[in-house]
Write the structure tokens for this entry.
Amino acid sequence: MSSLASANQSSGESEDYSYGNWYIDEPNAREEASQPYETIPACQHSFPPSLYHTCLAPLSLVAILLLSLLVKRRRLCLGCCHGTFGLPSPLDFLAEESGRLVPVAVFGILFTKLCVLALEEDPLPFLPISSPAGQGYWKTLALLYYPALYYPLIACATVRHQAGYVLGCLLSWAHCAVQIWHKVECPQTPKIYKYYSLLASLPLISGLVLLSLWYPTQLLKSLSQKMAVTGLEVTGKSYYEDYLRHILSGKRSKSSSSVANPSFPSRILFYFLSHIYSPQRGFRLPLKLILSSTLAAITIYQEVLLLLVAFVPNLQKAREGITEEVTYMLAGFGLVLSEDKLEVIAWVKYYLWALEVCYVSALVLSCSLTFLMLTRSLVTHRNNLRAWHCGATLDGGPQPQKPGVGATAIFCWMSFSGYQTAFICLGLFLQQIIFFLGFVLFTFLVVIPILYGRNLLLFYMLENTWPFCLTLILAVILQNLTAHWAFLENHQGQQELTNRKSLYAVTFLLFPINVLVGIMVGFCRMLISALFNIIHFCQLDLSLLPRGVETLDPGYRTYCYYLKMEVSQSHPAMRAFCFLLLQLPGSQRLAGAQAGLRPSDVEEGIRLLQTKNSARNATRSRQSRIRWGLAYTLIRNPSLLTFRKKSLSGPLANGSQPSSPNP
Amino acid sequence: MSSLASANQSSGESEDYSYGNWYIDEPNAREEASQPYETIPACQHSFPPSLYHTCLAPLSLVAILLLSLLVKRRRLCLGCCHGTFGLPSPLDFLAEESGRLVPVAVFGILFTKLCVLALEEDPLPFLPISSPAGQGYWKTLALLYYPALYYPLIACATVRHQAGYVLGCLLSWAHCAVQIWHKVECPQTPKIYKYYSLLASLPLISGLVLLSLWYPTQLLKSLSQKMAVTGLEVTGKSYYEDYLRHILSGKRSKSSSSVANPSFPSRILFYFLSHIYSPQRGFRLPLKLILSSTLAAITIYQEVLLLLVAFVPNLQKAREGITEEVTYMLAGFGLVLSEDKLEVIAWVKYYLWALEVCYVSALVLSCSLTFLMLTRSLVTHRNNLRAWHCGATLDGGPQPQKPGVGATAIFCWMSFSGYQTAFICLGLFLQQIIFFLGFVLFTFLVVIPILYGRNLLLFYMLENTWPFCLTLILAVILQNLTAHWAFLENHQGQQELTNRKSLYAVTFLLFPINVLVGIMVGFCRMLISALFNIIHFCQLDLSLLPRGVETLDPGYRTYCYYLKMEVSQSHPAMRAFCFLLLQLPGSQRLAGAQAGLRPSDVEEGIRLLQTKNSARNATRSRQSRIRWGLAYTLIRNPSLLTFRKKSLSGPLANGSQPSSPNP
């Protein structure tokens, strides 16, 4: 056994154990020496968090009010404020052409704050906590406070105005400076693990850094160019035009993979990337899905970090702190690992080390599986979106026969990102528990017995039941063999049943054994079903229930309705047509106005298409057809524009009939 | 609290508790008085089981040999022994026309014996047990011994000969007499519960009684009628003719439900029966499904019996045996239910009674659910079979494009009944555990706190987290309300999205709360999925895995292949045609022979259709078409038979070409 102990030393914890050998008689002295239990000095911020919030909350409020005034002013100038109130929109979830960087960054900041908040004792530093119950109330309040605090960070970008960019710069710099200053001043915190707070805040800080770089860039751009907004619009326009051309041309454009003889690594890379990013021209995943995926990645990061720092350092400390007392404690429970106390300590340390390895392996496995499932989800999302765009429906999902959206769809759409994040969190946790248990059982019942000949529980069980197991295995093999060689006859190229009487006799005689085989198969069924559900728990695009009752699964139901809403409100072809219809006359009509057409005006485009004469449906549909045809022709033949200018801008602006149906 | 105690008395255990009040100071005396722990006297069988087996095993062997000789002799007489060996077939699983009573009875006997065997110490009474390990070997051996022992009981019926019936009478009487004699002599056994052995053997004894009545009846029939076998054949023939006529007529026959104005109860009964028994004329569930259902019912009986007698009497004993010592024991664990010792005893008794109620309720619920699932399975089986008969395929199952059977299908077909039985057993057990836990949690966390104001754990938790819960609920309600009233606009009868900016703002602001709502929804998802899978675990016709990966579920895979085998081998239309083809000339050709055509000769009918000239496929298919047409015409016009006798019996007997293709 001493050879084993030395093997242990060389493999896992060489220095710890060698120390343990020498200082085993002075456990207290050694413990104090090797484990100073480094006390983290109480760290006082020179700029306390309460002051930070007291300054930044009013600043944010002022920013919102200013932005609101700005929006109102522009609205009033344009003379159209139907349905929009003063508050600037945080972001346009349903538009493809709005930037994706700022929403992703702000959602990341918000979610990271939420994660950090869950473990913080002082959720709202500017409010005094009266009791532990009060802490709960403040946490609930903080769930509403932090979105409001970060609201201006995202709203400044959507206003697309120099004043907005200036405000954005100020706010993001202030947030970023304070956060970085706090972390530099106090990098270590006593909670859970000394660097946990720092590591957990990394996404928050990187998001803030990103914003405090993005806003100045945009400000500089808008200062240097007179019409900075046009650049963005041109992108949106070209995107939609591209998409429309691609859809209407009817033939697939050659993908970039048609390069002659790509190398093997680049092929693999391309194959992997083709799952994440669609090679179809003009097709983009909706912003909400991009957001959900980013949030899912942050969730995985935060959860893995927490699981890691909450378990591994403590286990390592426990391993280092093992002394002779453990042998007495184990003996008290009737567990005698060995006669030699040193050996017992070595074994306990070895077991703890094995436990740690199992834990980390389970974490790695569950993390990779969750990432894999996330990637697969993206593929499924893309396929489903494309199918819905073509009018297909999801298996078991809501039927798209009703063209409008319902309240359920809106509710599901609002909750989708939150649910996706929560499911990733729960799924990863479930996987970690199950895989950890599985690895521990495997290690302690199979690996250690085989390596060291200890804990032979499973092997004793096998030894006692081998005739039974052998009978079951033999029966299965026998049935398979007889099915192959005795009961099948090759009759003119077609396999036919033969020897029926023997088949019946074997079926009858082996029935009791088949019942027992069935018990084993039943356990397999349970295991497969449970593992499948746990691994796929984080996927919203997959129902955990079988065919026919899929929508009983609340996650899948949310996904189906989310998709319905997304497709009905942002079908790319529809949006492209609306955008172009507005763009063509608009760019000329509003050439003298201060601002060009914003992508959010597409909503107005949809409204324009709804003519007022509901009674004359036939005329309306004819009108619509003519209009689409007109728009399409004009896209393909831009030279005609000059001749059609008046007749086109007329009917689209006020909804009357076009002067001539034939372009 | 004393009012509660008196309430307890009146509700649950009035006499026990009132005794307890009086005799609380003499616990030992009272215990001995009220609980004599009735020792069951050791019971010696006057006809020991070892002798029973020593007599009956050779008798069964002799019976098998005699039957084998009988079969051989008849086979030799007929001059066709292709592929059949001497051993008589136990039953014709794939034929619809064979009787169903005997197979059901014998399988029931065999399975009951298997259940009783699992708990028996002496699985093979005629062999001495050397050690507990030896007991395991004997049990494994018994799995093969008992099917062989009961083999003649079923084989005697399939021979359809007077000698077979005589042997069947002898064997069934012997088995039945010995079993009944044993139970009458020793109705009580010390194991588990005094009457457990008697109750568990009931299906075995009733099966034996059934057989010992059936064989004499058949013997009398065959003695009184010269051609007793013909009766059976006529049944089979008329069944197939009916089915064929029904299929070929193309119009649905009126079902029996068309009686004018049936009463409400009879309607309900009919509705229920229509699920179990198909009203379609001529359609019958295959024998294997009938067998599996019977075995499933026996499994439920045996398992419920075992679960009931293993828990309830022991709990009742424990409840009666509660004395003052329990208070000390509880105090030792730091549990002080009350200051008054009498009250503590009352509470413990009440809790035990609640536990018992939960257990029995869970058992009733799981038993009813399993029965319901079994009924639903029968409906699905029928629908699936009909769909396969028409050439449809199961969702995700194997494609029926390959017309022949494969080894997998044969293996799955052989194991099907065993698996179904095992899954019912496992499923019921799982349900019992889960429902019991659920009921206990519900009773002790919700019902008792509400009724008596104790164990307020859940309510304390709710009290501490109410602002959190309220926020979540309010957020969900708010989102639903705004989705309905603020973000939806009724635009010419069609609902359209409006107020987009507010929608985006609400989505952003409520995101953190939606993550927490998502955690709750995730728990619901887990619960729904787990409950669904546990409740449907016993159903083989339902995959527990979602769409696309259904056949990864071993149970569903077995079911699909079983169905494929069943349909390919016993398609009713095919069998009906074969039967008729053989029947028409056979009844005249073999009129002088001792025995008529047996339904098992249908196999030969299938063979006859395969002509030897594989090269001339075109001729063959023309031949087949002509033959089917001929047979059909003759069925519809029996008067033509006399004119066609010679030309028909010729080609069918030796497979040569028919002399005239036109009937």
Remarks:
- The CA atoms of residues 176 and 209 of chain A lie 6 Å apart.
- The longest helix of chain A spans residues 341-389.
